[in-house]
TrEMBL record, chain A:
Protein name: ABC transporter substrate-binding protein
Keyword Signal: yes
InterPro entries membership: Peripla_BP_I (IPR028082), SBP_2_dom (IPR025997)
Keyword Signal (UniProt): yes
Span of domain Periplasmic binding protein: 52-290
Signal peptide: 1-25
Keywords of the record: Signal
Subcellular location field: Cell envelope
Family stated for the protein in its record: Belongs to the bacterial solute-binding protein 2 family.
Length: 339, 342
């Protein structure tokens, strides 16, 4: 009997510890909120993020966290969905019940959002999409979308090549090029291919030998580039639709005994412009990188301020994106880069 | 002999374990209400959302409980959910199959899938872990074979099921537009509860239900009592296959989409919910309502994290791990204490 009593007490103690653990954990966060709950003029924003799968994504998260601060008049509720759509749906439902003023979603997938967006609409909470689009039948379910203009990125890459060839006095010559495409169907692949093709059509002397997917990975990019080099002996330009594939292509070119970069045989244009791409440009392996800007926070804040003032906003909002090449002072620029 | 005694005594302790699970849930929820009172944690809709978001998981955990009572395990259910969502989306959007036939087809698929796995487990005596591991790979691969693209469901009848709000005319409150909002549930919640009640009654009062406990408690004695052990196990897997596909259907009502990566790791959520709810991995002990509270506890932790707003959502996993360890230790303490008393 004593033992039984002891066991019950033990259990009670364990439950007690658990509960205290829970409450303490929540307390830490709550004490911060409680002191501010007097400031009712804070705008509450719930951000349902995809996850933390890449440097780009982490920079995107940081951009939101540093923009929506208490000093700037916001309270940010951040949720990492761990790449799961059902987690994002749960997070949005939770935001709705917390009565946030705005919901920002970077959807994991493009589909299946109608029910939960209708719940938000019924509560009168505006929804802003970041990065990826949503495939919904009723566009009034969200206010607007903020993200990169992939077509413009492709065109920027093409125009850079026009200028570069002119500078080198090669604008009349026959230029042979190949493209390492991203994962077929991904919006970055579709937009960048289309954008570059627009510029390609304006230049009769450009000859696109082949387009093949390297699935956005370094290994596949290298493999595809190796086969390109075996097939064609006079490749002048390589378009890699992201940095990782460009790194793979650089390895393949070097392995084949050729050179690339500003002083080499082959010109390489890459997209995304992550830190490693700057290193490759500084090392003289890569010619040019077109940025895919993850810093959506300030633009979203701008839109929220407009909506607060009762203004209309455009349905599609592109973030500013730049282009970097080896003629710039890259070592200085890279110090200011967030990712 | 020792083993058998231990089992029997745990059976007596399970009521108490279930009580602890329920008490823990209530305590956690009350703490949430107190801590996040200003953010509206206490709203009825917050609790209802636990059920809406987890309706599929509740049904899947019920199926998992049945399997675990027989001493087995099924790790294929997450992939089955993915393939069910994909089949539904693909049939309705690409092949113009109606919502009702598509639903019946996926339920039939679950039944056949369960029958096949059950046959391998019960008649060929292969380890359930290995059989369902193969099933997990197969179903995930099949999902990708049907389509590697995301398919969004736009079938009107299906969407009307998904969006059909059952309004509860109680606890109304005014939203920011000045309209009165009442709490609402979706049909998926009703289906999940119906399933829970049916499985509960089946386990408690039918011959099949009692045989499941007998087979899981001690297969040898069940055989000697004249029970058809193999058939009982087979039926358990068939039932679980059906529940997995039904759970997938409810999951699909929530997400309205099919894609390859869907519901990854859902089987582990189902298993952990069952264990937190007092079901033993060794078989012979378990209760579907315990599993319901296991799911609700997981949901409450998730709600905590989103209401708190700054903690990483990965804390949910750590909290679940702590709870699992707590309940497993508790179960073994009970087993050894009672044994000593005898």
């Amino acid at each position: 009997m004593k033992k039984r009593l002891l066991s019950i007490m033990l259990v009670a103690a364990m439950v007690g510890v658990m509960v205290m653990g829970c409450s303490q954990k929540a307390d830490n966060g709550d004490s911060g909120d409680a002191s501010d709950s007097g400031d009712s003029d804070l705008i509450t924003v719930g951000y349902a993020q995809v996850g933390a799968e890449s440097d780009w994504r982490t920079a995107n998260t940081e951009s939101f966290k540093s923009t929506f601060t208490k000093e700037n008049g916001y309270e940010l509720i951040f949720d990492d969905a761990q790449q799961k759509q059902e987690n994002q749906i749960k997070a949005i439902r939770s935001f709705i019940q917390q009565g946030v003023d705005y919901i920002v979603v970077a959807p994991v997938v493009e589909t299946g959002w109608e029910t939960v967006l209708e719940e938000a609409k019924a509560e009168g909470i505006p929804v802003i999409l970041s990065d990826r689009q949503m495939d919904v039948s009723d566009e009034s379910l969200y206010e607007c979308w903020v993200g990169g203009n992939f077509i413009k990125e492709g065109e920027d890459g093409g125009h850079w090549l026009e200028d570069y060839l002119k500078e080198k006095g090669m604008d009349g010559e026959e230029i042979n090029m190949v493209t390492l495409q991203g994962t077929i169907g991904a919006s970055a692949q579709v937009g960048r291919t289309e954008g570059f093709a627009n510029v390609l059509a304006e230049n009769d002397n450009w000859n696109m030998l082949e387009l093949q997917t390297g699935e956005f990975t370094q290994a596949k990019g290298q493999e595809v580039m190796e086969s390109f080099l075996k097939k064609y002996d006079d490749i002048d330009v390589v378009i890699a639709e992201n940095d990782n594939m460009a790194f793979g292509a650089i390895d393949a070119i070097k392995a084949a005994g050729k050179t690339c970069g500003p002083d080499g045989d082959i010109t390489i244009i890459s997209f995304d412009a992550v830190k490693a791409a700057f290193d490759a440009m500084i090392a003289g392996d890569l010619n040019c990188a077109v940025e895919c800007n993850p810093l959506h926070g300030p633009r979203v804040a701008e839109i929220i301020q407009k909506l607060e003032a009762g203004e209309e906003v455009d349905k599609i909002q592109y973030v500013d994106e730049e282009l970097f090449d080896t003629s710039m002072d890259l070592e200085e620029i890279v110090k200011t880069r967030a990712y | 002999m020792n083993k058998k005694k231990g089992r029997k005594s745990i059976l007596e302790g399970t009521g108490f374990l279930l009580m602890i699970t329920i008490a823990l849930f209530i305590v956690m929820y009350v703490i949430g209400c107190l801590l996040f009172a200003d953010k509206g944690f206490a709203k009825p809709q917050v609790f209802i959302n636990l059920l809406i978001s987890n309706a599929g998981l509740i049904v899947i955990a019920a199926g998992m409980t049945v399997i675990m009572i027989t001493g087995g395990i099924d790790i294929s259910v997450g992939s089955v959910v993915a393939v069910v969502c994909m089949m539904l989306a693909w049939m309705m959007e690409r092949k113009d199959v109606g919502a009702i036939p598509a639903t019946l087809i996926v339920l039939g698929f679950g039944l056949v899938f369960g029958l096949f796995q059950g046959f391998l487990v019960s008649y060929l005596k292969i380890q359930p872990f290995i059989v369902t591991l193969a099933g997990m790979f197969f179903a995930r691969g099949l999902t990708a074979m049907i389509s590697q693209d995301m398919i969004s469901i736009k079938n009107e009848m299906f969407l009307s099921w998904a969006k059909y709000k059952i309004v509860i005319p109680l606890f109304g409150r005014v939203n920011r537009r000045g309209e009165v909002m009442y709490p609402y549930i979706y049909p998926s919640v009703v289906i999940a509860f119906l399933v829970l009640v049916i499985i509960f009654l089946m386990l408690k009062y039918t011959k099949f239900g009692r045989s499941l406990y007998a087979v899981g408690g001690n297969e040898q004695s069940a055989l000697m009592m004249g029970l058809n052990v193999r058939r009982t196990k087979l039926y358990a897997y068939v039932l679980n296959g059906l529940l997995a596909s039904l759970g997938g259907f409810l999951f699909c009502l929530n997400t309205c989409a099919g894609f390859v990566e869907q519901a990854k790791g859902l089987e582990m959520d189902a298993i952990s919910s069952a264990v937190i709810g007092g079901t033993l991995l060794t078989g012979g002990v378990g209760n579907v309502f315990g599993s319901l509270f296991g799911v609700l506890i997981k949901g409450t932790i998730e709600t905590f994290i989103t209401f708190q707003g700054t903690l990483s959502s990965w804390w949910v996993r750590i909290a679940i791990a702590a709870l699992l360890a707590f309940f497993i230790i508790l179960q073994s303490i009970f087993a050894s204490l009672k044994e000593k008393r005898k």
